[in-house]
UniProtKB/TrEMBL annotation:
The gene is LOC106585711. Its EC number is 3.5.4.3. This is Guanine deaminase. It catalyses: guanine + H2O + H(+) = xanthine + NH4(+). Belongs to the metallo-dependent hydrolases superfamily. ATZ/TRZ family. Keywords: Hydrolase, Metal-binding, Zinc. Gene3D superfamilies: Metal-dependent hydrolases, Urease, subunit C, domain 1. Its cofactor is Zn(2+). Binds 1 zinc ion per subunit. Pathway: Purine metabolism; guanine degradation; xanthine from guanine: step 1/1. InterPro entries: Amidohydro-rel, Guanine_deaminase, Metal-dep_hydrolase_composite, Metal_Hydrolase, Metallo-dep_hydrolases.
Length: 450
Protein backbone atom coordinates (compact mmCIF):
# COMPACT_ATOMS: atom_id res chain seq x y z
CA UNK A 1 0.00 0.00 0.00
CA UNK A 2 1.35 3.45 -0.92
CA UNK A 3 1.34 6.30 1.59
CA UNK A 4 -0.37 9.52 0.48
CA UNK A 5 2.79 11.25 -0.75
CA UNK A 6 4.22 8.21 -2.51
CA UNK A 7 4.58 8.38 -6.26
CA UNK A 8 2.54 6.14 -8.54
CA UNK A 9 4.92 6.87 -11.45
CA UNK A 10 7.97 4.70 -12.10
CA UNK A 11 11.47 5.65 -11.03
CA UNK A 12 13.52 7.35 -13.75
CA UNK A 13 16.76 8.17 -11.86
CA UNK A 14 18.35 7.53 -8.50
CA UNK A 15 21.24 9.60 -7.11
CA UNK A 16 23.43 8.74 -4.13
CA UNK A 17 25.58 11.18 -2.18
CA UNK A 18 25.25 14.43 -0.19
CA UNK A 19 22.16 16.62 -0.50
CA UNK A 20 22.13 20.13 0.99
CA UNK A 21 18.91 22.13 1.23
CA UNK A 22 16.84 24.50 3.38
CA UNK A 23 13.65 23.47 5.13
CA UNK A 24 10.90 25.58 6.69
CA UNK A 25 12.65 25.09 10.05
CA UNK A 26 16.35 24.86 9.23
CA UNK A 27 18.36 27.23 7.04
CA UNK A 28 20.80 24.51 5.96
CA UNK A 29 20.07 20.81 6.37
CA UNK A 30 22.81 18.45 5.27
CA UNK A 31 21.81 14.95 4.27
CA UNK A 32 24.87 12.72 3.87
CA UNK A 33 24.93 9.42 2.03
CA UNK A 34 21.32 9.60 0.88
CA UNK A 35 19.57 8.00 -2.02
CA UNK A 36 17.13 10.26 -3.83
CA UNK A 37 14.77 8.80 -6.43
CA UNK A 38 13.15 10.89 -9.16
CA UNK A 39 10.06 9.53 -10.86
CA UNK A 40 9.19 9.65 -14.55
CA UNK A 41 7.20 12.86 -13.96
CA UNK A 42 10.29 14.63 -12.57
CA UNK A 43 9.14 14.55 -8.96
CA UNK A 44 11.10 13.40 -5.93
CA UNK A 45 9.67 9.95 -5.19
CA UNK A 46 11.75 9.00 -2.16
CA UNK A 47 14.72 10.00 -0.04
CA UNK A 48 16.38 7.24 1.97
CA UNK A 49 19.64 6.20 3.49
CA UNK A 50 22.40 5.11 1.12
CA UNK A 51 22.92 2.10 3.34
CA UNK A 52 19.44 0.89 2.46
CA UNK A 53 20.13 0.74 -1.24
CA UNK A 54 19.21 -2.96 -1.52
CA UNK A 55 15.89 -2.61 0.26
CA UNK A 56 15.01 0.58 -1.62
CA UNK A 57 15.90 -0.86 -5.00
CA UNK A 58 13.61 -3.82 -4.33
CA UNK A 59 10.82 -1.61 -3.12
CA UNK A 60 11.05 0.93 -5.96
CA UNK A 61 12.33 -1.35 -8.70
CA UNK A 62 15.46 0.48 -9.85
CA UNK A 63 18.90 -0.84 -10.72
CA UNK A 64 21.18 2.02 -11.79
CA UNK A 65 22.37 4.55 -9.22
CA UNK A 66 24.37 7.69 -10.04
CA UNK A 67 27.02 8.11 -7.33
CA UNK A 68 28.27 11.62 -6.49
CA UNK A 69 31.98 12.21 -5.85
CA UNK A 70 33.50 13.10 -2.46
CA UNK A 71 33.50 16.86 -3.17
CA UNK A 72 30.15 16.93 -4.85
CA UNK A 73 26.68 17.65 -3.53
CA UNK A 74 23.21 18.36 -4.83
CA UNK A 75 21.51 21.60 -3.77
CA UNK A 76 18.14 23.00 -4.89
CA UNK A 77 18.20 25.15 -8.01
CA UNK A 78 18.29 28.87 -7.29
CA UNK A 79 15.27 31.14 -7.75
CA UNK A 80 15.84 34.55 -9.33
CA UNK A 81 12.76 36.46 -8.20
CA UNK A 82 13.46 39.54 -10.34
CA UNK A 83 15.36 39.82 -13.62
CA UNK A 84 14.84 41.97 -16.72
CA UNK A 85 15.59 39.60 -19.62
CA UNK A 86 15.31 42.56 -21.99
CA UNK A 87 18.12 44.47 -20.26
CA UNK A 88 20.67 41.65 -20.57
CA UNK A 89 22.22 43.17 -23.72
CA UNK A 90 23.78 45.99 -21.66
CA UNK A 91 24.45 44.10 -18.42
CA UNK A 92 27.77 45.17 -16.96
CA UNK A 93 27.56 48.73 -18.30
CA UNK A 94 25.61 51.96 -17.74
CA UNK A 95 25.71 52.09 -13.96
CA UNK A 96 26.57 55.77 -13.59
CA UNK A 97 23.17 57.33 -12.93
CA UNK A 98 20.36 57.17 -10.38
CA UNK A 99 17.27 55.12 -11.23
CA UNK A 100 14.94 57.62 -12.89
CA UNK A 101 17.65 59.08 -15.15
CA UNK A 102 19.03 55.58 -15.82
CA UNK A 103 15.63 54.43 -17.05
CA UNK A 104 15.37 57.32 -19.51
CA UNK A 105 18.95 57.30 -20.70
CA UNK A 106 19.68 53.57 -21.04
CA UNK A 107 16.70 51.34 -20.35
CA UNK A 108 13.80 52.70 -22.39
CA UNK A 109 15.83 53.15 -25.62
CA UNK A 110 17.03 49.53 -25.43
CA UNK A 111 13.65 48.07 -24.47
CA UNK A 112 12.06 49.86 -27.44
CA UNK A 113 14.17 47.61 -29.73
CA UNK A 114 12.18 44.47 -28.83
CA UNK A 115 9.70 45.27 -31.55
CA UNK A 116 12.32 43.45 -33.61
CA UNK A 117 11.74 39.74 -32.95
CA UNK A 118 15.17 38.64 -34.20
CA UNK A 119 16.86 41.04 -31.77
CA UNK A 120 14.60 39.66 -29.04
CA UNK A 121 15.35 36.04 -29.95
CA UNK A 122 19.09 36.64 -29.78
CA UNK A 123 19.11 38.39 -26.39
CA UNK A 124 16.49 36.11 -24.83
CA UNK A 125 18.35 32.97 -25.91
CA UNK A 126 21.53 34.30 -24.33
CA UNK A 127 19.88 35.27 -21.04
CA UNK A 128 18.04 31.97 -20.61
CA UNK A 129 21.19 29.97 -21.33
CA UNK A 130 23.37 32.13 -19.10
CA UNK A 131 21.03 32.03 -16.12
CA UNK A 132 20.50 28.27 -16.42
CA UNK A 133 24.24 27.70 -16.57
CA UNK A 134 24.58 29.87 -13.46
CA UNK A 135 22.12 27.65 -11.61
CA UNK A 136 18.88 29.63 -11.92
CA UNK A 137 16.26 26.93 -12.29
CA UNK A 138 13.37 29.37 -11.74
CA UNK A 139 13.38 32.94 -13.10
CA UNK A 140 10.78 35.66 -12.73
CA UNK A 141 11.31 37.74 -15.86
CA UNK A 142 10.33 41.20 -17.03
CA UNK A 143 10.27 41.38 -20.84
CA UNK A 144 9.12 44.63 -22.55
CA UNK A 145 5.80 46.12 -23.67
CA UNK A 146 5.90 43.98 -26.85
CA UNK A 147 3.53 41.01 -26.63
CA UNK A 148 5.07 38.88 -29.38
CA UNK A 149 8.61 39.25 -28.04
CA UNK A 150 7.37 38.48 -24.52
CA UNK A 151 5.70 35.31 -25.82
CA UNK A 152 8.99 34.43 -27.50
CA UNK A 153 10.77 34.70 -24.13
CA UNK A 154 8.27 32.18 -22.74
CA UNK A 155 8.93 29.85 -25.67
CA UNK A 156 12.71 30.08 -25.25
CA UNK A 157 12.52 29.41 -21.50
CA UNK A 158 10.38 26.35 -22.30
CA UNK A 159 12.73 25.17 -25.05
CA UNK A 160 15.71 25.23 -22.69
CA UNK A 161 13.69 23.74 -19.84
CA UNK A 162 13.75 26.65 -17.39
CA UNK A 163 10.88 27.20 -14.95
CA UNK A 164 9.76 30.78 -15.54
CA UNK A 165 7.26 33.47 -14.79
CA UNK A 166 7.22 35.83 -17.77
CA UNK A 167 5.80 39.34 -17.74
CA UNK A 168 4.82 41.52 -20.65
CA UNK A 169 5.60 44.97 -19.26
CA UNK A 170 2.69 47.42 -18.97
CA UNK A 171 3.22 51.19 -18.99
CA UNK A 172 1.12 54.05 -20.30
CA UNK A 173 3.31 56.91 -19.08
CA UNK A 174 6.69 57.79 -20.53
CA UNK A 175 7.57 61.44 -20.91
CA UNK A 176 11.06 60.79 -22.15
CA UNK A 177 10.54 58.33 -25.02
CA UNK A 178 6.90 58.78 -26.04
CA UNK A 179 6.97 55.85 -28.50
CA UNK A 180 7.89 53.40 -25.74
CA UNK A 181 4.50 53.24 -24.04
CA UNK A 182 0.94 52.07 -24.66
CA UNK A 183 -2.51 53.51 -24.10
CA UNK A 184 -4.32 51.96 -21.11
CA UNK A 185 -6.65 50.17 -23.56
CA UNK A 186 -3.75 48.76 -25.60
CA UNK A 187 -1.99 47.64 -22.45
CA UNK A 188 -5.11 45.92 -21.12
CA UNK A 189 -5.90 44.28 -24.47
CA UNK A 190 -2.34 43.11 -25.07
CA UNK A 191 -2.05 41.77 -21.51
CA UNK A 192 -5.20 39.73 -22.12
CA UNK A 193 -3.76 38.46 -25.40
CA UNK A 194 -0.45 37.62 -23.73
CA UNK A 195 -2.13 35.70 -20.93
CA UNK A 196 -4.49 33.93 -23.31
CA UNK A 197 -1.60 32.72 -25.48
CA UNK A 198 0.83 31.77 -22.69
CA UNK A 199 -1.40 30.31 -20.00
CA UNK A 200 -1.19 26.52 -20.04
CA UNK A 201 0.93 26.50 -23.22
CA UNK A 202 4.06 25.15 -21.51
CA UNK A 203 4.26 23.06 -18.34
CA UNK A 204 6.81 25.21 -16.50
CA UNK A 205 6.16 28.72 -17.87
CA UNK A 206 3.43 31.00 -16.56
CA UNK A 207 2.42 34.59 -17.35
CA UNK A 208 2.77 37.27 -14.67
CA UNK A 209 0.83 40.56 -14.71
CA UNK A 210 3.49 43.29 -14.87
CA UNK A 211 2.77 46.96 -14.26
CA UNK A 212 6.30 48.41 -14.61
CA UNK A 213 5.95 50.63 -11.51
CA UNK A 214 3.50 53.26 -10.30
CA UNK A 215 5.27 56.24 -11.97
CA UNK A 216 4.86 54.53 -15.39
CA UNK A 217 1.19 53.62 -14.92
CA UNK A 218 -2.03 55.62 -14.68
CA UNK A 219 -4.55 54.71 -11.99
CA UNK A 220 -6.82 53.47 -14.79
CA UNK A 221 -4.17 51.05 -16.05
CA UNK A 222 -3.35 49.81 -12.54
CA UNK A 223 -7.06 49.17 -12.03
CA UNK A 224 -7.33 47.15 -15.28
CA UNK A 225 -4.31 45.06 -14.35
CA UNK A 226 -5.55 44.38 -10.82
CA UNK A 227 -8.80 43.14 -12.29
CA UNK A 228 -7.08 40.89 -14.85
CA UNK A 229 -4.89 39.34 -12.16
CA UNK A 230 -7.83 38.79 -9.85
CA UNK A 231 -10.09 37.28 -12.53
CA UNK A 232 -7.41 34.82 -13.65
CA UNK A 233 -5.71 34.17 -10.28
CA UNK A 234 -2.36 35.26 -11.72
CA UNK A 235 1.02 36.27 -10.37
CA UNK A 236 1.80 40.00 -10.26
CA UNK A 237 5.21 41.71 -10.31
CA UNK A 238 6.35 45.31 -10.16
CA UNK A 239 8.82 47.63 -8.40
CA UNK A 240 8.39 49.58 -5.19
CA UNK A 241 10.29 52.14 -3.09
CA UNK A 242 13.64 51.59 -4.76
CA UNK A 243 14.85 55.19 -4.31
CA UNK A 244 13.74 58.15 -2.22
CA UNK A 245 13.29 60.25 -5.36
CA UNK A 246 10.86 57.64 -6.73
CA UNK A 247 8.91 57.53 -3.44
CA UNK A 248 8.54 61.33 -3.58
CA UNK A 249 7.43 61.15 -7.20
CA UNK A 250 4.71 58.62 -6.31
CA UNK A 251 3.51 60.98 -3.54
CA UNK A 252 3.15 63.71 -6.16
CA UNK A 253 1.48 61.48 -8.76
CA UNK A 254 -0.89 59.73 -6.32
CA UNK A 255 -1.62 62.35 -3.64
CA UNK A 256 -4.81 60.65 -2.42
CA UNK A 257 -3.12 57.44 -1.32
CA UNK A 258 -1.65 56.69 2.11
CA UNK A 259 1.61 55.30 0.75
CA UNK A 260 3.33 53.78 -2.29
CA UNK A 261 2.15 50.35 -1.09
CA UNK A 262 -1.38 51.69 -0.76
CA UNK A 263 -1.34 52.63 -4.47
CA UNK A 264 -0.89 48.98 -5.41
CA UNK A 265 -3.17 47.74 -2.64
CA UNK A 266 -6.12 49.87 -3.69
CA UNK A 267 -5.82 48.56 -7.25
CA UNK A 268 -5.98 44.91 -6.09
CA UNK A 269 -2.34 44.40 -6.92
CA UNK A 270 -1.19 43.15 -3.51
CA UNK A 271 -1.90 39.44 -3.15
CA UNK A 272 -0.03 36.34 -2.02
CA UNK A 273 1.08 35.97 -5.64
CA UNK A 274 2.60 39.46 -5.81
CA UNK A 275 6.35 40.05 -5.81
CA UNK A 276 7.65 43.62 -5.67
CA UNK A 277 11.30 44.42 -6.26
CA UNK A 278 13.53 46.49 -3.95
CA UNK A 279 11.40 48.00 -1.14
CA UNK A 280 14.47 49.77 0.29
CA UNK A 281 12.44 52.66 1.72
CA UNK A 282 9.24 50.99 2.94
CA UNK A 283 7.78 52.07 6.27
CA UNK A 284 6.74 49.66 9.03
CA UNK A 285 3.10 50.33 8.12
CA UNK A 286 3.76 49.33 4.53
CA UNK A 287 5.55 46.14 5.60
CA UNK A 288 2.51 45.35 7.73
CA UNK A 289 0.37 45.57 4.58
CA UNK A 290 2.75 43.19 2.80
CA UNK A 291 2.38 40.74 5.68
CA UNK A 292 -1.41 41.01 5.72
CA UNK A 293 -1.79 40.49 1.99
CA UNK A 294 0.96 37.86 1.61
CA UNK A 295 2.85 39.98 -0.94
CA UNK A 296 6.61 39.44 -1.07
CA UNK A 297 9.81 41.38 -1.72
CA UNK A 298 12.51 40.61 -4.29
CA UNK A 299 15.74 41.80 -2.69
CA UNK A 300 18.12 43.02 -5.42
CA UNK A 301 21.31 44.08 -3.64
CA UNK A 302 23.58 44.41 -6.66
CA UNK A 303 21.17 46.84 -8.31
CA UNK A 304 20.53 48.71 -5.04
CA UNK A 305 24.25 49.44 -4.71
CA UNK A 306 25.07 49.84 -8.42
CA UNK A 307 22.42 52.56 -8.89
CA UNK A 308 23.02 53.95 -5.37
CA UNK A 309 19.35 53.35 -4.57
CA UNK A 310 19.52 52.26 -0.94
CA UNK A 311 20.27 49.30 1.29
CA UNK A 312 17.35 47.04 2.11
CA UNK A 313 17.36 45.92 5.73
CA UNK A 314 16.50 42.26 5.13
CA UNK A 315 16.46 41.45 8.84
CA UNK A 316 13.74 44.04 9.37
CA UNK A 317 11.67 42.56 6.55
CA UNK A 318 12.05 39.04 7.96
CA UNK A 319 11.13 40.29 11.44
CA UNK A 320 7.90 41.59 9.90
CA UNK A 321 7.32 38.04 8.60
CA UNK A 322 7.19 39.25 5.02
CA UNK A 323 8.28 36.70 2.40
CA UNK A 324 11.55 37.61 0.70
CA UNK A 325 13.59 36.15 -2.16
CA UNK A 326 16.70 37.31 -3.99
CA UNK A 327 16.87 38.89 -7.44
CA UNK A 328 19.69 39.78 -9.80
CA UNK A 329 17.68 42.69 -11.31
CA UNK A 330 19.76 42.59 -14.49
CA UNK A 331 20.72 45.18 -15.74
CA UNK A 332 20.45 47.61 -12.78
CA UNK A 333 22.29 44.71 -11.19
CA UNK A 334 25.28 43.94 -13.38
CA UNK A 335 25.50 40.21 -12.72
CA UNK A 336 23.12 37.51 -14.03
CA UNK A 337 24.34 35.09 -11.36
CA UNK A 338 22.36 34.24 -8.26
CA UNK A 339 25.68 33.47 -6.55
CA UNK A 340 26.41 37.17 -6.95
CA UNK A 341 23.02 37.98 -5.40
CA UNK A 342 23.96 35.77 -2.43
CA UNK A 343 27.30 37.58 -1.98
CA UNK A 344 25.83 41.07 -2.37
CA UNK A 345 23.09 40.18 0.14
CA UNK A 346 25.79 39.26 2.66
CA UNK A 347 27.82 42.39 1.80
CA UNK A 348 24.80 44.65 2.32
CA UNK A 349 24.02 42.99 5.64
CA UNK A 350 27.64 43.51 6.71
CA UNK A 351 27.57 47.16 5.57
CA UNK A 352 24.51 47.64 7.81
CA UNK A 353 26.49 46.02 10.61
CA UNK A 354 29.34 48.49 10.09
CA UNK A 355 26.80 51.30 10.55
CA UNK A 356 25.30 49.65 13.65
CA UNK A 357 27.44 47.13 15.48
CA UNK A 358 24.34 45.75 17.25
CA UNK A 359 22.84 44.77 13.89
CA UNK A 360 21.89 41.11 13.58
CA UNK A 361 23.94 40.23 10.47
CA UNK A 362 22.55 37.63 8.09
CA UNK A 363 24.44 34.33 8.06
CA UNK A 364 25.45 32.54 4.88
CA UNK A 365 23.06 29.76 5.85
CA UNK A 366 20.13 32.20 5.98
CA UNK A 367 21.09 33.67 2.63
CA UNK A 368 21.34 30.18 1.11
CA UNK A 369 17.77 29.65 2.21
CA UNK A 370 16.67 32.97 0.68
CA UNK A 371 18.26 32.01 -2.67
CA UNK A 372 16.39 28.69 -2.79
CA UNK A 373 13.36 27.96 -0.62
CA UNK A 374 12.85 31.67 0.22
CA UNK A 375 12.63 32.55 -3.47
CA UNK A 376 10.14 29.79 -4.15
CA UNK A 377 8.01 31.01 -1.24
CA UNK A 378 8.25 34.62 -2.47
CA UNK A 379 6.87 33.44 -5.83
CA UNK A 380 4.29 31.15 -4.19
CA UNK A 381 5.83 28.22 -6.02
CA UNK A 382 7.07 26.35 -2.96
CA UNK A 383 4.51 23.59 -3.36
CA UNK A 384 6.48 22.56 -6.44
CA UNK A 385 10.07 23.66 -5.91
CA UNK A 386 12.63 25.18 -3.51
CA UNK A 387 13.96 22.17 -1.61
CA UNK A 388 14.22 18.40 -1.58
CA UNK A 389 10.90 17.20 -0.25
CA UNK A 390 9.14 14.11 -1.50
CA UNK A 391 6.45 15.18 -3.97
CA UNK A 392 8.21 18.34 -5.15
CA UNK A 393 9.82 18.61 -8.58
CA UNK A 394 13.50 17.74 -8.68
CA UNK A 395 15.01 21.19 -9.42
CA UNK A 396 18.65 20.75 -8.52
CA UNK A 397 22.27 21.70 -9.07
CA UNK A 398 24.99 19.10 -9.04
CA UNK A 399 27.89 21.04 -7.53
CA UNK A 400 31.48 19.85 -7.79
CA UNK A 401 33.61 22.05 -5.56
CA UNK A 402 36.75 20.37 -6.92
CA UNK A 403 35.96 20.85 -10.62
CA UNK A 404 39.13 20.82 -12.74
CA UNK A 405 40.08 24.33 -13.81
CA UNK A 406 37.45 25.78 -11.47
CA UNK A 407 37.80 28.72 -9.08
CA UNK A 408 38.06 26.76 -5.81
CA UNK A 409 41.31 25.26 -4.52
CA UNK A 410 40.63 22.62 -1.91
CA UNK A 411 43.80 22.38 0.14
CA UNK A 412 43.39 19.33 2.35
CA UNK A 413 40.49 17.64 0.54
CA UNK A 414 38.90 16.70 3.83
CA UNK A 415 36.47 19.58 4.09
CA UNK A 416 32.99 18.59 5.25
CA UNK A 417 29.84 19.43 3.24
CA UNK A 418 29.04 22.63 5.18
CA UNK A 419 32.48 24.04 4.37
CA UNK A 420 32.11 22.95 0.74
CA UNK A 421 28.75 24.76 0.57
CA UNK A 422 30.21 27.94 2.06
CA UNK A 423 33.17 27.84 -0.31
CA UNK A 424 30.85 27.31 -3.28
CA UNK A 425 28.60 30.21 -2.27
CA UNK A 426 31.53 32.58 -1.77
CA UNK A 427 34.03 31.39 -4.38
CA UNK A 428 32.20 29.18 -6.85
CA UNK A 429 30.90 29.85 -10.33
CA UNK A 430 29.35 28.00 -13.26
CA UNK A 431 32.43 25.78 -13.60
CA UNK A 432 31.36 24.17 -10.32
CA UNK A 433 27.75 23.68 -11.47
CA UNK A 434 28.34 20.55 -13.47
CA UNK A 435 24.69 19.65 -14.02
CA UNK A 436 21.38 21.47 -13.68
CA UNK A 437 18.01 19.70 -13.39
CA UNK A 438 14.55 21.22 -13.72
CA UNK A 439 11.55 18.99 -12.97
CA UNK A 440 13.84 15.97 -13.15
CA UNK A 441 15.19 16.77 -16.60
CA UNK A 442 18.88 17.52 -17.07
CA UNK A 443 18.99 20.93 -18.78
CA UNK A 444 22.73 21.72 -18.31
CA UNK A 445 25.02 20.76 -20.02
CA UNK A 446 22.93 21.85 -23.00
CA UNK A 447 22.02 19.25 -25.54
CA UNK A 448 23.45 20.60 -28.79
CA UNK A 449 21.06 20.57 -31.72
CA UNK A 450 21.78 18.67 -34.97
O1 LIG B 1 15.82 48.55 -11.22
C1 LIG B 1 14.86 48.88 -11.93
N1 LIG B 1 14.82 48.52 -13.23
C2 LIG B 1 13.80 48.84 -14.04
O2 LIG B 1 13.80 48.50 -15.24
C3 LIG B 1 12.75 49.61 -13.47
N2 LIG B 1 11.59 50.10 -13.95
C4 LIG B 1 10.99 50.74 -12.95
N3 LIG B 1 11.73 50.67 -11.82
C5 LIG B 1 12.82 49.97 -12.12
N4 LIG B 1 13.88 49.61 -11.37
ZN1 LIG C 1 13.76 45.68 -11.85
Amino acid sequence: MMSSNESAAGIAHVYRGTFVHATYHTAVEILEDRLLGVDTEGKIAFIGSGKEVDRLSQKWGFEAVTQLGQHEFFMPGMVDTHIHASQYSYAGTALDMPLLQWLNMYTFPVEACYKDLEFARNVYTHVVKRTLRNGTTTACYFATIHTDASLLLGQIANDFGQRALVGKVCMDTNNFIPHYKETPEESEGETNRFIGELLKKYPLVRPVVTPRFAPSCSAALLGHLGEIAQNNDLHIQSHISETKEEVNLVKELFPDYDSYTDVYHRHNLLTDKTVLAHGCHLTDGELKLFRETGASIAHCPNSNISLCSGMLDVRRVLNHKVKLGLGTDVAGGYSPSMLDAVRRTLDTSKALTIQDTQYHTLTFEEVFRLATLGGSQALSLDENTGNFEVGKDFDALRVNTDAAGGPIDLINHEEGPKVLLEKFLNLGDDRNIVEVYVAGKRVVPFVEGP
